[in-house]
Amino acid sequence: MFAILGNIEFTVAGGISGIEHSGSADWAEHARIQGKPLLEWMGEGLDEYQLTIELHPVLGDPEERLRALRLAKSQHQPLAFVMGSGEYLGAYVISNISHTLRRATATGQVKAATVQLSLKEYTGAFTRKALRPGLLDDALSGTSAATIGSPGLISHVKPSPSALQKVVAHAKTAATVLKAGQNVYHTIQSGNATQILEQVPQLLGKTAQAIEPLQGLATAAGLLHNGADLSRLGEQVLGNVMGARASLNPVDLSNLVERFSASREAIDQAVSQMDGANTRLATLAAQILTRRG
Hints:
6 helices
């Protein structure tokens, strides 16, 4: 899924071929007796998006999709606009729909067309509707999905996190911890051997924090019917973390340089592996956000 507007989904496979964003700022121009006018910032303008959508029978019923967009515009309601990554862009209204007919039947039915959909930011009071109790839950804490609504919009009846939600939560925690650990490695690597040796307990503590979420990732992903790759990811990253810890325990001044280098390389590899799964994990987060996970 590329993005969702209200309950209308846009996918690349479904025909969305472009998105253009524009933002503006309002400036007042004050004339001066001598010299050039003076600009004074008055406020921010409304953000706008232009979506280009291709309609074709192989991408879905063109007339049905066009009707859905026209219906959403005619209801004059702000709609939540969310990217497939889970990033909440805010509330938007459909300000304009235009389409260019590319092909039609002998009776005038649309067979192929290009639609231009204009969205304008809505800054009034807006409550994003929850499709079921527990719109947000602790498994999404700290993700972009958690910022969608105010606490008043979150149901007090929170269901237990699903395996999918656990996967996303564990992966996010592990990635954050590993990045923090990697920063420590790179910060102290320029120090002398004695300074590095003094930081070994901190490095062991940082790497230890990644063990539990990685174990949780491997276990939860194993419960998904298509989660074998993520389960292997959790195990592989955990292997690198344990290797990084083993390189530093025990360690002394005689072997510090070699062991610290090996430990840092293992952590770098662990971070790289987690970064490689970003797209996969973003897709899972989007499924949770749209109530499919």
